[in-house]
Amino acid sequence: MQDAITAVINSSDVQGKYLxxxxxxxxxxxxxxxxxxxRAATTxxxxxxxxxxxxxxxxxxxxxxxxxxxxxxTTRRYAACIRDLDYYLRYSTYAxxxxxxxxxxxxxxxxxxETYNSLGVPVAATVQAIQAMKEVTASxxxxxAGKEMGVYFDYICSGLS
Length: 161
Ligand code: CYC
Hints:
Layout: H1 4-14, H2 21-32, H3 34-46, H4 48-59, H5 75-98, H6 102-109, H7 112-119, H8 123-141, H9 143-160
The chain binds phycocyanobilin.
Residues 60, 65, 71-72, 77, 80-81, 84-85, 87, 107-108, 112, 115, 119, 121-122, 125-126, 129 line the site of phycocyanobilin.
């Protein structure tokens, strides 16, 4: 797992250089948004269940997916879906705090598309639910933090597609 600081240091280190102005600017903007990130993470963790619930209501409930034959039908599969969405929310929050998406590659996306394909979990509906979660989260934490979280929700969506 990397964060905004180690990413900048690693990239300078492979070139054997001190941090240049571009690298310093990246660090500066990371530190300047630190409080925003921590505040957003606090709000998200206090409201995680509500965020998932509202995103499911907006994107999946009462669709073919939740009816007999749909991939969320039966409470076991419904629960697996809610759990997956909670994973996406929690790991996006970690990545947003770190200012780096590498944790998503390592702990969420690695092998996920293959698992979904082999179980018949519909990727398009999953992407829709993640996009709904992005909207719900933004309305809760505000536009700036919402945009930052959006980067990582979108990262998961492209990793799945
Ligand atoms: C299943 N989701 C799974 C499985 C994995 C994950 C590994 C198979 C094993 C299991 O059932 O638990 C995902 N596991 C993860 C992730 C991590 C992990 C991301 C990293 C932290 O450890 N079905 C839908 C919806 C969607 C959905 C659109 C929710 C948005 O129709 C999800 N995922 C879903 C469902 C299953 C599943 C229904 C069960 C499928 C089955 O067993 O038939």
